[in-house]
Amino acid sequence: MRIVGLTGGIASGKSTVSNLFKTHGIPVVDADLVARLFQHLERDILQPDGEVDRPKLGQIVFSNPEKRQLLNRLLAPYISSGIFWEMLKLWMKGFKVIVLDVPLLFEAKMDKWTKPIVVVWVDPETQLQRLMLRDRTSEDDAQNRINAQMSLDLKRTRADIVIDNTGSLEDLKEQFQNVLFEVTKPLTWTEFGLSRQGAASVLVSIIVGVLIFRKVYNTESL
Ligand SMILES: CC(C)(COP(=O)(O)OP(=O)(O)OC[C@H]1O[C@@H](n2cnc3c(N)ncnc32)[C@H](O)[C@@H]1O)[C@@H](O)C(=O)NCCC(=O)NCCS
Ligand SMILES: Nc1ncnc2c1ncn2[C@@H]1O[C@H](COP(=O)(O)OP(=O)(O)OP(=O)(O)O)[C@@H](O)[C@H]1O
């Protein structure tokens, strides 16, 4: 199985790209969604209905590195095991290529499990403007959120494929065609071995090998 890493900075366009993968039939495991399933947090950030007040929690953790690290430490094991189970379900369904959309792929050192790594890059000014527009947030708050992550320039140096999403959505879709071509190339032997079909072939080969060996051994001992 090919596990494609999809990452970038906040509001750089990861979800927009992950929607393009989905519309082309490639499943995406979204770490933000996985994280939402495991939030048992302090009372004062819970709404009356018991749900997490995400904007309030966001304001707290993005302006306070210690609290953010605490939240990261608390959630990290749940996020990794949640991602693992989602991947296992897709493996059992026989998907050969899947995408892991993980904003903190490098920060959480999950990049070693994915190949190729796609980084959605955007220029800093556009990133700030898009974030403020999408989340209706102040410049200070948006900048805090951007600063809470590894810089996009550093992330792009660690990518196998870079998408520059500074331009229009049309530009993005054009670049996506090349990405699609790259990620849907025939699997390498290692990737095939890790797929459900590869594991089944190995199992069948072992069974056939054992049966042949037993037959030859039995014939010789007669
Ligand atoms: C802080 C929270 C409550 C803000 O919720 P909100 O609904 O406003 O944002 P959402 O979850 O959609 O995340 C938006 C983006 O923020 C960035 N982000 C989220 N968490 C973090 C973090 N701990 N550090 C840096 N950036 C982060 C990512 O780019 C993410 O895509 C939420 O992001 C959260 O619980 N984060 C901790 C879990 C986590 O680390 N998620 C990232 C998975 S790799
Ligand atoms: N090429 C583009 N042109 C104009 N707007 C765009 C473009 N790409 C994305 N956007 C908009 O920018 C915002 C951020 O994009 P998106 O939500 O995909 O980013 P993200 O990386 O998934 O963000 P987050 O890290 O917060 O989850 C959204 O409002 C999206 O509609």
What does this molecule look like?
The chain is of the alpha/beta class and 222 residues long. 57% of the residues lie in helices and 11% in strands. The chain has ten helices and five strands, in the order βαβαααββαααβααα. The chain has helices at 14-23, 31-36, 54-62, 65-92, 124-135, 139-147, 152-157, 169-183, 189-194, 196-221; strands at residues 2-8, 28-30, 97-101, 117-121, 161-164. Strands 2-3-1-4-5 form a five-stranded parallel β-sheet, with helices on both faces. The mean pLDDT is 91. Dephospho coenzyme A (COD) binds next to helix 2, helix 3 and helix 4.
- Uncertain runs with pLDDT below 50, 5 residues or more? none
Q: What is Rg? A: 22 Å
What bound compounds does this protein have? dephospho coenzyme A, adenosine-5'-triphosphate
Strand adjacency order, main sheet: 2-3-1-4-5
Discrete helix count: 10
Give the helices and strands as they follow along the chain: EHEHHHEEHHHEHHH
For this structure, what is the CATH class of the largest domain? Alpha Beta
Please tell me the overall pLDDT: 91
**Count of discrete structural domains:** 2
Q: Describe the biggest sheet?
A: 5 strands, parallel
CATH superfamily of the largest domain: P-loop containing nucleotide triphosphate hydrolases
Q: How many strand elements?
A: 5
Q: At CATH's second level, what is the architecture of the largest domain?
A: 3-Layer(aba) Sandwich
Give the % helix: 55-70%
Class derived from helix and strand content: alpha/beta
Shape assignment: elongated
InterPro entries: Depp_CoAkinase (IPR001977), P-loop_NTPase (IPR027417)
Family: Belongs to the CoaE family.
Pathway: Cofactor biosynthesis; coenzyme A biosynthesis; CoA from (R)-pantothenate: step 5/5
Keywords: ATP-binding, Kinase, Nucleotide-binding, Transferase
